[in-house]
Design goal:
Elements (H helix, E strand, L loop, with lengths): L2 H20 L15 H19 L21 H15 L17 H23 L7 H15 L14 E6 L5 E7 L2 E5 L7 E5 L1 H8 L9 E4 L4 H8 L2
Parallel strand pairs: 1-4
Antiparallel strand pairs: 1-2, 2-3, 4-5
Helix pairs in contact: 1-3, 1-4, 2-3, 2-4, 4-5, 5-6
Length: 241
């Protein structure tokens, strides 16, 4: 996807995220993130945006900056803080994708942050809208790209070990835009191919519904399931973040 698409997604989803937060109370629970309130969600996304902006202008050889020292303001100030941070992030990322940047795994370039923050912001927009009512679907093309990125990140997450198994497989198939993947669990992690192939279980549906289900945000009855449905809870546990 083009960098402009990612930047537009960051801006639009950040605006919708804060708008949704302002339609409810700061202490409202976030059903899709059970340990969080809306205030917690705002604090998280505001910090993540600033962390990403800091790393986007940081040389790869300087190492990844986790941004733990970023101070989160009091709950009442967080909506404005998130709007400001999203604008700053989009401005920082408005540069050539191939420009070097510090990331937590390759590619070490600005394009990594353009893609990662577009999907981070879109998914947390879903969380905010769920807290204040119903969420609107993620753009289908963006959602398909989000599934692709998710499968790329799973083996390389700095927060957990790669999932392993004995050959169990899942086929994920978008029905509204291009996007098919076969993921298989092996002793060394998960292998993913972008192919049309049979898995032990298959899930088919719109890209937004698939991404939301895989990420722990949507019900399985919004997608079509073919094959061994008993495997679905394990796959959802692997792909949820």
């Amino acid at each position: 996807m083009q960098a402009e698409v990612y930047l537009d997604a960051i801006r639009a989803n950040a605006t919708e995220l804060v708008d949704a937060a302002e339609r409810t109370t700061l202490d409202a629970p976030v059903p899709t993130c059970p340990d969080w309130t809306v205030a917690d969600l705002l604090g998280h996304i505001g910090r993540v945006h600033r962390m990403a902006a800091g790393n986007a202008v940081r040389a790869p050889e300087d190492g990844f900056w986790p941004g733990k020292e970023i101070e989160i303001p009091e709950p009442a100030a967080r909506a404005a803080w998130v709007r400001e941070g999203a604008d700053q992030l989009a401005a920082v990322l408005d540069r050539p994708s191939e420009q070097p940047a510090s990331t937590f795994f390759p590619p070490g370039n600005v394009g990594f942050w353009q893609r990662r923050q577009a999907h981070e912001t879109a998914m947390h927009r879903v969380d905010a809208q769920t807290a204040s009512g119903a969420f609107t679907p993620i753009d289908a093309v963006l959602a398909s790209d989000g599934i692709d990125e998710m499968f790329t990140l799973i083996n390389k997450s700095p927060r957990r070990k790669p999932p392993t198994g004995d050959g169990e497989s899942i086929h994920v198939h978008c029905t509204d835009v291009d996007g098919e993947w076969l993921a298989r669990l092996g002793p060394d992690g998960m292998q993913v191919e972008r192919v049309h192939a049979k898995g032990d279980v298959a899930v088919r549906g719109g890209a937004s519904d698939l991404l939301c289900w895989l990420s722990g945000r949507g019900p399985v009855d919004h997608v079509e399931v073919i094959g061994d449905a008993e495997q679905l809870p394990r796959w959802r546990a692997i792909t949820t973040f």
